[in-house]
Amino acid sequence: QVCAQLCRRPCYCPWVPPRCPRGSPLVLDGCGCCKICARRLGEPCDFLHVCDQSQGLVCDYSSASAGTGGICNFEDDEEGCEVNGRVYRDGEVFQPSCKIQCHCLDGGFNCIPLCQENVRLPTPDCPYPRRVEIPGKCCPEWICEAQDQHLPRDARAVSPPLRYPCPEWGTEWSACSATCGLGFATRVSNQNRYCRLETQRRLCMARPCPALPAAFPA
């Protein structure tokens, strides 16, 4: 009955198919007539505007009032996560980029870096190490720069050299030490009163820990 009311025959579709956002494929509408952009997780849907079945999504009318559309959700309330417009199933491991690997879990996701987070401290043969992006390589690498590149022009003849104001240098914050609940992230930075490299820490939380099941009464 719904099909007879909403679907017109013959089909009249635009010559040019719509341009879909990233992660939304072209699919046939509910009438099986024209190609449309599949609706993604959390987006509104109805008989004509269908959800992306390749991601396991269905149109959920459970929280909709009579006569209105639904919301794209996982079938049987299966949890998942959406990253950059793409939906991942619960338990799936994926790589948004070559630098990190993520794990979809309980509606959220945890990521770990794939590039080494090693720190190269200054040495006599490499007093000014710097981490740079190398064309054709995913992970940045350490290089040694000449001392003259870091000194003011009028200070190159001064010994020992004075490097003030302190040129900012530091690594990125590491991944959180705990997969759920409070943990800490670390980095190495010279942003302190002595302009010396030191390890710094800060609190972080990837996601809340799931609640423990209640104990059975004695």
From TrEMBL:
It holds the Pfam family VWC. This is CCN family member 5. GO terms for biological process: cell adhesion; positive regulation of cell differentiation; signal transduction. May play an important role in modulating bone turnover. Promotes the adhesion of osteoblast cells and inhibits the binding of fibrinogen to integrin receptors. In addition, inhibits osteocalcin production. It comes from Vidua macroura. It is found in: Secreted. The gene is Wisp2. Gene3D superfamilies: Thrombospondin type-1 (TSP1) repeat (2.20.100.10). GO terms for molecular function: heparin binding; integrin binding. Residues 1-75 form the IGFBP N-terminal domain. Keywords: Cell adhesion, Disulfide bond, Secreted, Signal. The keyword Disulfide bond applies. SMART domains: IB (SM00121), TSP1 (SM00209), VWC (SM00214). Residues 79-145 form the VWFC domain. InterPro entries: CCN (IPR050941), Growth_fac_rcpt_cys_sf (IPR009030), IGFBP-like (IPR000867), Insulin_GF-bd_Cys-rich_CS (IPR017891), TSP1_CCN (IPR043973), TSP1_rpt (IPR000884), TSP1_rpt_sf (IPR036383), VWF_dom (IPR001007).
